[in-house]
Design goal:
Blueprint: E1 3-7, E2 14-20, E3 33-40, E4 48-54, E5 61-66, E6 74-75, E7 83-88, E8 93-98, E9 108-114
Antiparallel strand pairs: 1-2, 2-3, 3-8, 4-5, 4-9, 5-6, 7-8
Domain Ig-like: 11-111
Keywords: Adaptive immunity, Immunity, Immunoglobulin
Protein name: Ig-like domain-containing protein
Length: 124
């Protein structure tokens, strides 16, 4: 689990997202991973929120994006059918649920505000 902060335009303005929990989790194959992420410093309900992971020794992998309208959520083919994202815009929270875990799901998971959600289409 990790954290990401990104700078907004203007001096000393910082938006951040914080993964919860921010420590390691140990799960077994077949179990379900549930993660939460809180955003701050930006208007949460205007933004697409994405989940990204990074397996040890590998690059970043986008796994899904969540909209305020859940019918618009979309996911990478590698996790489709096992993943769900949801949101609570009133509390600036986004959630990830990944079921039927596989060994290849072992990674550091990040949430991020997504300024360019249309770029994900190439990964679908």
């Amino acid at each position: 689990i990790g954290e990401r902060a990104e700078k907004l335009s203007g001096p000393r303005r910082l938006a951040s997202v914080q993964s919860i929990p921010s420590s390691s989790l140990v799960k077994k194959p077949g179990e379900t991973l549930s993660l939460s992420c809180r955003g701050s410093g930006f208007t949460f309900n205007c933004c697409v929120m994405s989940w990204i992971r990074q397996p040890v020794g590998k690059g970043l992998e986008w796994i899904g994006s969540g909209y305020s309208d859940a019918s618009r959520n979309y996911y990478a083919s590698s996790v489709r059918g096992r993943v769900e994202t949801s949101r609570d815009d009133s509390n600036s929270m986004v959630y990830l649920r990944l079921s039927n875990l596989k060994p290849e799901d072992s990674a550091v998971y990040y949430c991020a505000r997504d300024p360019h959600s249309s770029l994900k289409k190439k990964y679908m």
